[in-house]
Amino acid sequence: MFEDEARMTFTEHLGELRTRLIRVCAGLIVVFGVCFAFSDHLFLLLQKPLKNPQLSWLSLDPMESLMVYLKISGYFTVAICLPHILFELCGFVFPGLRPKERRAAMILLGGGSLLAIVGVAAAYFVVTPQLINVMIQWTPETVTQSLQMKATISFILMLLLAFAIAFQFPMVVLILVYLGVVSPQFLKAQRRVAFVLLAVAAAVLTPTIDPLSMMVMWVPLVIMYEACIWIAVLLVRRRENTSG
């Protein structure tokens, strides 16, 4: 569907880019307005995994609720508009790609989107409530535990984003195997190095710097790396059988 734009002058490309950017910006503005109008419902949605009758939410200043609602609206706006942004990006870039590169990009976008949804779901339904409950257990009995609105919502949003990004790792590895950049043998040989790099990535992506948060992300990444090796073997075998 993008082939008609393959032959264009430089000026026409700039005009097309401008048109696509205007469409993306217009969509972001409209969706942000809608998200802000329903920001109280979105706040309750983010609150849901932490439903605990023993915990109360705390706001420390009059502007805190507004700033939290703006942040929530911004995150949901990007998430909702991301398919449209990717569509406009593909429409601009795809005409200049070769068929193999275009196929790889489609696989990357489709698989990456699916893995992002899985990562967000895992963080929302499993990781967030368990992680915060474990952290709360360390609160001394003489201290009253409350959840500050701004800090807690920021933590939840960053955790969801971190898992969405971290779960893109398998697709990157598999695309590199598909393009012939790396091989299953290379992935096996560099397993220890990969585990260290994944630990560093988990430490960087997690909202708080503590061993528990890092392990919660690092373990799934290690499992996915091992799964990537087996899938890479199947991809190479299929390629060899097709070429043979």
Architecture overview:
The structure is a single chain. This protein is mainly α and about 240 residues long. It is about 75% helix and about 0% strand. The chain has nine helices and two strands. It has helices at about 10-35, 40-45, 65-95, 100-135, 150-165, 170-180, 185-190, 190-205, 210-244, and strands at about 55-60, 145-150. A two-stranded parallel ribbon has the order 1-2. Helix 2 (about 40-45) packs across helix 3 (about 65-95) and helix 3 runs parallel beside helix 5. The longest helix is centred in the middle third of the chain and has 38 residues, at about 100-135. The mean pLDDT is about 85.
